[in-house]
DNA sequence: AGACCCGGTAAAGGTTGGGTAAACCGTTTT
DNA sequence: AAAACGGTTTACCCAACCTTTACCGGGTCT
């Protein structure tokens, strides 16, 4: 399934039918969509923390531009806004962009295009969100990991990891010696919440362990905390500490 | 911790509204922002010692390029300049870089993105690591590249590269042994963000590899990091190094 | 002990990112 | 105007990768 990690969108549009339609399409894609059918309501709802706002330019009570302006003034500076407008009106576009819209979609648009843009914007905003998270170098208990080179080593031997495995390892190492519950790990590594019967993360951990062990047979750093999650452990793996 | 140590920015842009908006959210981020609403004023104010200058390409009295040129002539060669350009204008980008802009941001940009880039530039300039451009001669792992002659060689053999291919190679080589994510590469080489279903950069990489290999069959320096981007690798490509 | 739950993992299945040829298109050159 | 050139888009394909399924074993609860 094309899970969108439960991204939460807000649609501000007076057209009720269109709203229903979009809702359906976007929910098929795994987004959650709230709707506001007039500017005032939209502004109110925009206080909440959405991942993206879809804003129609033409509405009866107030124009999309006014709405946008107010939303931006209300400290919702960071939420991406995608403006929907009736005609390929260049003026609209320029105006919208200068007021801080992040993208602009002229009607008529295909659902496919809408979805593509929504995804693109969300991806972009999430990338921007982690500015400092870029350069990480971790070196714990014989395992090294470096985000800039996207490489990992166990006792000096290069680990050929997939991106997901890399993220799993990174997440666990950042929280070294602390338990990371399965849901958080899933979220961090796969970008979505864990679902019923979802064994995906277990598989990745399994594969990760396998790869580490193929290269450093004595290193057993990833410990299972039954019923909770996993933990990257520092201590020599002294099988079980009795105490 | 979001304190930006009172970095002082100058925005040169004729659009008053946009200026206000930018001012607001950059100040939220802890920057101080002065504004100039035309080229002449901008040049005058740029005499002062700002940490960074934001410069709009399109202004009524004179183009951003002229402004940039004059600022650079006036000994303000060290202040980083971030150019704000209209969407995906290739000419703008090339011209800007040749005149010594340090980065450029195509509209539409998210506020997040702007802030991220401003921070990145300031950080970079404080480390006094100039990012791109200037007279660069690179020689890494059997491949040579020289911006002043705009020529590149692989194991001594001249590579006939297009401008874009050259830029791609340059970008990757500057960041040798580090992953360059697709979006950054796109931005650096093509001057615009990557869009949904945008395969352009892949094609350039593909062509570049082809040209290198035509001349030096053993050199496989450009590595793909699936789901992330590309990396120029130093090490002998020796597929997998064992033990 | 029996029933249940959770996690390990092999194998199968499904999805997708990226390589690349070729068509397309706007510019520049001849 | 034709040809050349370079960038972009389209389309197809495959291997890499992620997810699901299924089975198993050990731990835990009653």
SSE diagram, text form:
Two copies of one chain form a homodimer.
Chain A: E1 8-12, H1 16-28, E2 32-36, H2 39-45, E3 52-56, H3 64-73, E4 81-85, H4 90-98, E5 103-106, H5 111-129, E6 137-140, E7 143-146, E8 151-154, E9 157-159, H6 163-174, E10 179-181, H7 182-190, H8 200-215, E11 222-225, E12 229-232
Parallel strand pairs in A: 1-2, 1-3, 3-4, 4-5
Antiparallel strand pairs in A: 6-7, 7-8, 8-9, 10-12, 11-12
Chain A binds a DNA duplex (30 and 30 nucleotides) through residues 1-2, 162-164, 190, 197-200, 202-207, 209-210, 224, 226-227.
Give an account of the 3D structure.
- The structure is a homodimer of 243-residue chains.
- Chain A is of the alpha/beta class.
- The first copy, chain A, has helices at residues 16-28, 39-45, 64-73, 90-98, 111-129, 163-174, 182-190, 200-215, and strands spanning 8-12, 32-36, 52-56, 81-85, 103-106, 137-140, 143-146, 151-154, 157-159, 179-181, 222-225, 229-232.
- Chain A has 2 domains: 8-129, Response regulator (Rossmann fold), CATH 3.40.50.2300; 137-232, Arc Repressor Mutant, subunit A, CATH 1.10.10.10.
- Helices cover 39% and strands 21% of the residues of chain A.
- The first copy, chain A, has a 5-stranded parallel beta sheet, with helices on both faces.
- At the A-B interface, helix 5 of A face helix 1 and helix 5 of B.
- The structure holds a DNA duplex (30 and 30 nucleotides).
């Amino acid at each position: 399934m094309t899970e969108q990690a439960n991204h939460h969108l807000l649609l501000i549009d007076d057209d009720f039918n269109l709203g229903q339609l979009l809702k359906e399409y976007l929910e098929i894609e795994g987004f959650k969509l709230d709707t506001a059918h007039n500017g005032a309501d939209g502004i109110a709802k925009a206080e909440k923390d959405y991942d993206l706002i879809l804003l129609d330019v033409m509405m009866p009570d107030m124009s999309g531009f006014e709405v946008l302006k107010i939303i931006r003034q209300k400290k919702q500076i960071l939420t991406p806004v995608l403006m929907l407008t009736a005609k390929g009106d260049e003026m609209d576009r320029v105006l919208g962009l200068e007021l801080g819209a992040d993208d602009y979609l002229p009607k008529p648009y295909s659902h496919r295009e809408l979805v593509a843009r929504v995804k693109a914007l969300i991806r972009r905003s999430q990338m921007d969100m982690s500015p400092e998270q870029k350069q990480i170098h971790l070196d714990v208990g014989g395992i090294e990991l470096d985000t800039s080179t996207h490489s990992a080593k166990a006792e000096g031997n290069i680990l050929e990891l997939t991106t997901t495995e890399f993220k799993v390892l990174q997440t666990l190492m950042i929280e070294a010696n602390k338990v990371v519950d399965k849901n958080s790990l899933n979220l961090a590594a796969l970008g979505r919440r864990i679902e019923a019967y979802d064994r995906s993360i277990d598989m990745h951990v399994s594969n990760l362990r396998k790869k580490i062990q193929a290269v450093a047979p004595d290193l057993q750093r990833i410990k299972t905390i039954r019923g909770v999650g996993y933990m990257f452990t520092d201590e020599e793996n002294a099988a079980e500490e009795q105490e």
